[in-house]
Write a structure and sequence with these properties.
158 residues; alpha+beta; Endonuclease I-creI; 4-stranded antiparallel beta sheet; 4 strands; 49% helix
Length: 158
């Protein structure tokens, strides 16, 4: 093991613990008129830190070979990973090095959403409704606006 190899310098178990405390698996459903069903699913994994700890975010970016380190708000930076193939690798990593907090359940749901997207289920109203309900069960359990829209309610009544 050489000290020059970035992946070998970061310990996978440390990363798992760090993400348990600081990471977030999030899925947004945004209204986008040009999409075939009028909505877009945007999954992301992110870790936010004060700008003084930006180097940790960059090390994690290099470790995962994924994402971008960007400004979050004022003095905060975040590692943001949005590409589906990179997100699949993140899910695989945490299956090998499991999370221990409630984020473990969020990761499972997140992985299920990615799988639904792999099967193009997000391109149907029924699939998107399923994804929205899964989103609702994650994190702070905020009901996605998609589930409250008149279009969704109309579709459910058929």
């Amino acid at each position: 093991m050489t000290a020059d190899n970035q992946q070998e310098r970061l310990d996978a178990r440390w990363i798992s613990g760090f993400v348990d405390g600081e990471g977030c698996f999030h899925v947004s459903i945004n209204k986008v008129e040009k999409m075939s069903i009028g909505s877009q699913v945007l999954p992301e994994f992110r870790i936010v830190q004060h700008e003084r700890d930006e180097s940790v975010l960059k090390e994690l970016q290099q470790f995962f070979r994924a994402g971008k380190v960007v400004t979050n708000h004022s003095a905060r930076k975040e590692l943001r990973i949005r590409k589906l193939y990179e997100l699949r690798n993140i899910v695989l990593f945490f299956k090998q090095y499991p999370l221990r907090t409630k984020k473990k359940k969020n990761l499972e749901i997140f992985g299920e959403i990615l799988e639904l997207m792999d099967h193009k289920k997000h391109l149907t109203v029924e699939g998107l409704t399923n994804i929205a309900n899964l989103c609702w069960s994650m994190n702070r359990k905020i009901k996605p606006r998609f589930l409250e829209s008149s279009e969704t309610l109309r579709q459910k009544s058929f």
